[in-house]
Design goal:
Strand content: 25-35%
Structural class: alpha+beta
Number of helices: 5
Strand order of the largest sheet: 3-4-5-10-7-6
Radius of gyration: 29 Å
Number of strands: 16
Oligomer: single chain
């Protein structure tokens, strides 16, 4: 009886060790897994770059000087639209600065939503600290206006001057306006209900494209195929064409192991070395 118990005891430990190894292998394989939505984007669904020209007012004598003619002319034009006619040659402005306003408008952002914007000085202003951006329309590369920005400028920098001493930390000629622009036109995205979809890999790779297609096929059999190193074509099944959003949500949640190249990064400033998991040291 004691011998049989010892055998069962040893066999139990062997089975436990085998199960532990299998579980460890599964955990290691899943550790490198990534979702489709993390590695690729749908074709025709992308953000739009916006830009606009505006004026920042309320500066404490740190704005553009008289030599920056476009600032003076912009102020004169603005006053004329408000019913005030002035001669640009008579204006002496140091509390106004001309700036470029930029923003990125993601896809599917509806009118009325707010997005962040960035501003950068155009003229010879010394600082934009304490300024307020006046109403500035933002247009895309197609010439259409998609948003309008206005609000107090946030610089994230410090500057001070007293007597012959001065102190400056950070860059005072560019800043941000968190939620500073209101969207009033949505980006026209591609038709997602055409029967077929294409996912574009962020880092083109033949192995990753095939792995992603196989991962989608595990959820929806015989629907995905890798067209090239960066494109995976997915044909929507007939049973899912009444609910495209559910199909996209399930497909982009598929997990696969993207292929990564062996890489070593040397940081000479900090003296550190970062190595990828595929690098082998002899």
């Amino acid at each position: 009886m004691r011998i049989n118990e010892e055998k069962r005891y040893k066999i139990g430990w062997v089975e436990f060790a085998v199960a532990a190894c299998i579980l460890l292998a599964i955990l290691i394989s899943n550790a490198n897994a990534a979702r489709v939505k993390d590695m690729a984007t749908l074709e025709g669904v992308s953000e739009q770059q916006l830009a606009g020209y505006g004026l920042v007012v309320g500066l404490a004598g740190t704005g553009d000087g008289a030599r920056t003619q476009f600032t003076v002319q912009s102020v004169a034009n603005m006053l004329q639209k408000m019913g005030i006619v002035v001669n640009p040659a008579d204006l002496r402005l140091r509390n106004v600065a001309a700036v470029m306003v930029t923003a990125s408008l993601p896809a599917f952002v509806k009118p009325g939503k707010k997005i962040d914007v960035s501003i950068s000085s155009l003229g010879d202003a010394r600082s934009l600290e304490g300024g307020t951006l006046l109403m500035t329309p933002l247009q895309g590369s197609d010439g259409e206006y998609y948003a309008q920005a206005q609000g107090a400028v946030s610089l994230g920098s410090i500057s001070a001057k007293a007597g012959g001493n001065s102190f400056k930390k950070g860059h005072a000629l560019s800043g941000t306006l968190p939620d500073g622009a209101v969207v009033y036109k949505e980006i026209e995205s591609a038709n997602l209900k055409s029967g077929s979809l294409r996912w574009l890999l962020s880092n083109p790779d033949f192995t990753s494209a095939v792995a992603m297609a196989n991962a989608i096929n595990q959820i929806f059999p015989n629907t995905a195929i890798a067209e090239d190193a960066s494109t995976v074509l997915v044909n929507v099944p007939e049973s899912m064409r009444g609910d495209y959003m559910s199909f996209i949500a399930r497909a982009e949640a598929a997990e696969f192991n993207p292929n990564t190249n062996s890489r070593i990064v040397l940081n000479e400033k900090t003296g550190t070395i970062v190595s990828g998991s595929n690098v082998q040291i002899d």
